[in-house]
From TrEMBL:
Pfam family, one: Amino_oxidase
Cofactor annotation: FAD
Any single biological process term in GO: carotenoid biosynthetic process
Membrane protein topology class: Peripheral membrane protein
Xref: SUPFAM superfamilies: FAD/NAD(P)-binding domain
NCBIfam families in UniProt: phytoene_desat
Enzyme Commission (EC) number: 1.3.5.5
Subcellular localization: Plastid, Chloroplast; Plastid, Chromoplast; Membrane
Protein source organism: Trapa natans (Water chestnut)
A GO-annotated cellular component: chloroplast thylakoid
Name the record gives this protein: Phytoene dehydrogenase
Catalytic activity: 2 a plastoquinone + 15-cis-phytoene = 9,9',15-tri-cis-zeta-carotene + 2 a plastoquinol
Length: 576
């Protein structure tokens, strides 16, 4: 097993392309042996001037400033060549259409509720088209489902563990358009799964760089003999043939089946689901394969197998509000738009004809505009729907779309954990989904002496109302299986310095069977009212890519409706 990109107990060398200040020393050599008092990242901009960590506590007589005798290897891989893929080019063309659209004689004022990725995307592309978006966010932080907060020690904790795939063409274009490609820390092209029957061990699917898609994915599967036997691989491949031959129409037709039902129908051994697709289902939608629509899995597999770098992963190099959302806001403001925090919508005020007159904020202010967008989670939209809209089929179908609960756990330990990687890891635990040692994987969170594990606790429905301590206790019991030599449930080994539990009672929409017909288009039947969000109609389902693409589609509909909306604004101005 390669040691590249992981925490290793052996001496290692790595190439340092950036000058990095560690404890006020400047390291500039291209090859340097790194011990646990120093560190190096390469391949993207470094965010701070010092990686000092001010922990002066003492546990059982040992100072936490002690340096542990192991080596940390943190490598950013080069950005993959994504620009020539069909999906990337289509996304780039859609982005370019906003710049090339005719400049409006009178820009529309478009009021957008929700500053998550969907709302930010909508506002960004409307501004590119020459309009004036006003983005209203209820909370005091940007990002929605990618929000994060800083604690009193200066450490960040996030809503979720966010991974940026090569198969996210609109997200990748967005980074490029903002000039922040270097903020993505690309990892080696692998998928790494814990082995529950072999505590502390992992099994890898390594995608060779020299092979094109889908051969690189096929090779990765064939080379892994620890999780699936050859007969299981063959039966799974045969089961997938209809999806490979039938393409998108076949994929969409599987919306009515759960993953478990589809596997049984295709004659795929149940152990394939147990070994691979429980982990994959929880990573994609935070639920198990007996609930998840097979369409969701097939869409992911299609992207991963059809694009050479589709399954390649990157971490953001710091907290999402500052490293991703703030550049979007700066772009919007530079083009005349505005973003307002602490602006919670209390009610949608209607005109006599049932169209939107204004958004009434909780502070009593009325915000009027030429068009209105709701880019909040679907559950919030349903709470604020005006009574006279609720029986309209377009809105009534939303009843089936419900956000799934999810819990994100952060644990800061008193030492550097050895049994981890500079990568996303699939826990294959009954309680945990994916996790990462963010003290290694993310520059802003880097710490040479202590690990910070960020873990997704899923499925979370039975745990969302439980106390933080209950959740931490359960998490530690699972971690004791993943780190048998380093972590015990009673903390007799690694000690917890602190923890944060972030609960989201309603996150992305739950992708259960027969949801697809309920997903709305971005243009509503109410003139001048639009929707954006990963639950709206777009091919990437509940994901960051889906949120960004929904915002582009929403902005595109508004641009297309310019003449109608401009005339509507004039007519209401004359009436008033």
């Amino acid at each position: 097993m390669t040691q590249c990109g992981c925490v290793s107990a052996v001496n290692v060398s790595l190439n340092c392309y950036n000058a990095v200040k560690i404890k006020d020393f400047q390291y500039k050599s291209r090859a340097c042996h790194l011990k646990l008092g120093s560190g190096c990242f390469s391949g993207s901009e470094f965010m701070g001037t010092s990686l000092n960590v001010a922990y002066n506590h003492v546990i059982k007589g040992r100072s936490l400033n002690d340096v542990y005798p192991l080596q940390v290897r943190c490598i950013d891989y080069p950005r993959p060549e994504l620009e020539n893929t069909v999906n990337f080019l289509e996304a780039a063309q859609l982005s370019a259409s906003f710049h090339s659209s005719p400049r409006p004689s009178k820009p529309l004022k478009v009021v957008i509720a929700g500053a998550g990725l969907a709302g930010l995307s909508t506002a960004k592309y409307l501004a590119d088209a020459g309009h004036q978006p006003l983005l209203l966010e209820a909370r005091d932080v940007l990002g929605g489902k990618v929000a994060a907060w800083k604690d009193d020690d200066g450490d960040w904790y996030e809503t979720g563990l966010h991974i940026f795939f090569g198969a996210y063409p609109n997200v990748q274009n967005l980074f490029g358009e903002l000039g922040i490609n270097s903020r993505l820390q690309w990892k080696e092209h692998s998928m790494i799964f814990a082995m529950p029957n072999k505590p502390g061990e992992f099994s890898r699917f390594d995608f060779p760089e020299v092979l094109p898609a889908p051969l690189n994915g096929i090779w990765a599967i064939l080379r892994n003999n620890e999780m699936l036997t050859w007969p299981e691989k063959v039966k799974f491949a045969i089961g997938l043939l209809p999806a490979m031959v039938g393409g998108q129409p076949y994929v969409e037709a599987q919306d009515g089946l759960t993953v478990k039902e589809w596997m049984k129908k295709q004659g795929v051994p149940e152990r394939v689901t147990d070994e691979v697709f429980i982990a994959m289902s929880k990573a994609l939608n935070f639920i198990n394969p007996d609930e998840l629509s097979m369409q969701c899995i097939l869409i992911a597999l299609n992207r991963f197998l059809q694009e050479k770098h589709g399954s390649k992963m990157a971490f953001l190099d710091g907290n999402p509000p500052e490293r991703l959302c703030a550049p979007i806001v700066n772009h919007i403001r530079s083009l005349g738009g505005e973003v307002m925090l602490n602006s919670r919508i209390n009610r949608i005020e209607l005109n006599n004809d049932g169209t939107v007159k204004a958004f009434l904020l909780s502070n009593g202010n009325m915000v009027e505009g030429d068009a209105f967008v709701f880019a909040t989670p679907v559950d919030i939209l349903k709470l604020l729907l005006p009574e006279r809209w609720k029986e309209i089929p377009y809105f009534k179908k939303l009843e089936k779309l419900v956000g799934v609960p999810v819990i994100n756990v952060h644990i800061w330990f008193d030492r550097k954990l050895r049994n981890t990687y500079d990568h996303l890891l699939f826990s294959r635990s009954s309680l945990l989904s994916v996790y990462a040692d963010m003290s290694v994987a993310c520059k802003e969170y880097y710490n040479p002496n202590q690990s910070m594990l960020e873990l997704v606790f899923a499925p979370a429905e039975e745990w969302i109302s439980r106390s933080d301590q209950d959740i931490i206790d359960a998490t530690m019991r699972e971690l004791a299986k993943l780190f048998p030599d380093e972590i015990s449930a009673d903390q007799s080994k690694a000690k917890i310095l602190k923890y944060r539990v972030v609960k989201t009672p309603r996150s992305v929409y739950k992708t259960v069977p027969d949801c697809e017909p309920c997903r709305p288009l971005q243009r509503s039947p109410i003139e001048g009212f639009y929707l954006a969000g990963d639950y709206t109609k777009q091919k990437y389902l509940a994901s960051m890519e889906g949120a960004v693409l929904s915002g582009k589609f929403c902005a595109l509909d508004i641009v297309k409706d310019y003449e109608l909306l401009a005339a509507r604004g004039l007519s209401y101005a004359e009436v008033s």
